Amino acid sequence: MVAAPGENMRVNADRLWATLMDMAKIGPGIAGGNNRQTLTDEDGEGRKLFKTWCEDAGLTVGVDKMGTMFATRPGTDPEALPVYVGSHLDTQPTGGKYDGVLGVLGALEVVRTMNDLGIKTKHPIVVTNWTNEEGARFAPAMLASGVFAGVHTLEYAYDRKDPDGKTFGDELKRIGWLGDEEVGARKMHAYFEYHIEQGPILEAEEKTIGVVTHCQGLWWLEFTLTGREAHTGSTPMNMRVNAGLAMARIMEMVQTVAMENQPGAVGGVGQVFFSPNSRNVLPGKVVFTVDIRSPDKDKLDRMRARIEAEAPGITEPLGVGCSIEAIGHFAPVTFDPTLVTAVRTAAEKLGYSHMNIISGAGHDACWAAKVAPATMVMCPCVGGLSHNEAEDISKEWASAGCDVLFHAVVETAVIME
Ligand code: HGY
Ligand code: MN
Ligand code: MN
C-alpha cells in the first residue's frame, strides 16, 4: 500500500536556511550577495562543499564531462528511472545568495528530510548541480543542461570563451571538475527545479508558491559594430565613424520594439565591450548582446526579425559596420501538466497560497523539459529583485517552497512501505 505523505511532513526550515548561509560564505560579493561565477576557484570551492554535504547525506556523487554534479539517493526499484531535482550553484558577478542555490540546496533538503523520516521511494532521487546556468562568464546560459539535452555539442561548449579568452574546456579542467560521465547518458523519470521567481508577481499578489506552467523564450543577439578609432577632442563631428553612437541608437530601437510588443515582451542590453575603451578615443569596435524574451514564440521571432532588419538603417548612415550573431536561444517552454498538477496539489495540501505563473527567467528546467517531463516550483523574492546582490527572500518563503517541492517529488517518486 502506497502511503501518501501527510500534510504534517515538512522540511527542516532552520537546516535549509543554515545551509544556504553556509554556501553564501563562498565567493562573497562586495554588497552582501555572491560572485561565484562558473568554473572559477570559488565555484570549485562551492562544489566541494556541496559534494561533502551530499556524501554526508548518504548520496553517491557522479560528474559528467560538462562538470554537472549528480548526487543519487537509491530507490527500492533499481530499474526505475530517477527523479532529478536540481538547479545551479554558479552566480552572476553581482549575484544574489538564492538564484539557483535555493534549488540545489532545496533539493538536498528534500533528501535530508526523506532520510529523517525514513522515507523509501521506488524511483531513485538525484540532486543535481548544473554547470554554467548563468551564461555570465561563458555564453550561452544553461550551457551544461543544453549539452545534456542535445541542443549543443560538447565541442561547442568546450570552445566557449570568457572575456579574457579562456575556454570553458580549459577552465573546467583547471578547477578539477571534468567528470567522466557521457553528457546526456542519464535518463530521467522526471525533473523538478525549485527557484526564486526573480520577478515581482508572487509578492505583489501575496502568493507564497508559484505553480510554474511555462517559461518564456529568449534570443541573445550579439552585435559587433565597427567604427574608426579617433581622438574624441580633435576629430570634427562630421568625420566620425562612431560605433558608440550606433550602439546607443540600436539600444533605443530595442526598447521601442519591446514596448510596441506589450504585454508579454522584454528587451534590453546587459553587456557592452568598447575597444579600446579609453575615455578619449572613439571606439573602433563595440560588442554588445541584445536580450529579448516573450512567452509567445511568434512575437519573439518577429521582434528578432525587426531588430535585425532595422539595425542597418542605423549603422549605415553612420558608416559603421555591423554583424549580428545569435549566441543564445530557446523557444517558450510548456512544463509537464502532470508534474504541474503535483506541485499545485502539494501547495493545496500544505495550505500555501499559490498561483500559476510563467517564468520570466530561463532555467535548466527549460532544457530538461526537452528530454523528460519537467516542471518548477517558485517562491517570491523581495521587490522581485534578482541578478542583484540585494536579492532577498524570507526564511518562511524558502521553506514553504521546499515543502511543496518535497511533497511533489515524493509523490512522483512513489513512496514504498
Ligand atoms: O538569463 C536567464 O534567464 C538566467 O538567469 N540564466
Ligand atoms: Mn537561476
Ligand atoms: Mn540567474
From TrEMBL:
It comes from the Bacteria. Residues 216-310 form the Peptidase M20 dimerisation domain. CDD domains: M20_bAS (cd03884). Pfam families: M20_dimer (PF07687), Peptidase_M20 (PF01546). The keyword Nucleotide-binding does not apply. The keyword Transmembrane does not apply. Keywords: Hydrolase. One of its GO terms (molecular function) is hydrolase activity. PANTHER family: ALLANTOATE AMIDOHYDROLASE (PTHR32494:SF5), ALLANTOATE DEIMINASE-RELATED (PTHR32494). NCBIfam families: hydantase (TIGR01879), PRK09290.1-3 (NF006769). Belongs to the peptidase M20 family. This is Zn-dependent hydrolase.
